[in-house]
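User: Show me a protein chain along with its predicted structure.
Assistant: Here is one chain, sequence first, then structure tokens.
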Amino acid sequence: MPTSGCRCIVTDDLRVDGGLGEWRVGSMSEVVPLIYLMREEGHAMTQYLITFPSDAMNHIPDDEMSEVGRAAHAVCQDLIDAGVYLLTGGLEEEPANLVGTDGTVTDGPRPDFIGGITIVDVPSREDALRWAAKIAAACRCTQEVRAIGFDPELEAMLGKVAVDVDPLKTRDRG
């Protein structure tokens, strides 16, 4: 059972258990509304961005990188099992594209600032810091933690989507 957040298990239909009983829907397109509904019922969480610089792992010998990879994947599995995982990954060593307000695309800088990212959805900053410590130990480098701002207008838009799909969901208690 997750300690916080929601656990998503994808089968023929989608089931989300956030400690409120099980919600079922028929397609992946309804995931966001369900998460919104769970937040609406008192499971509000904050998303945190956890990052490390692109050169932060340069001190690790090549022959130890597979061990670091296994340790990092173990932490990812822990995040998934806890129901707080949203995203994790490393930025490719390629230039960014800069898109101007008029749509013009130009080549940008290489990712020399951020090398890896993780986004978690947890109840508190302290929880985010605990996860960052696990990531830091696995990746053998310092992590930076920042809260992702809450946007009430976006939450209202998600609420509208949740209302629009309401007839499609069923709720199992039991």
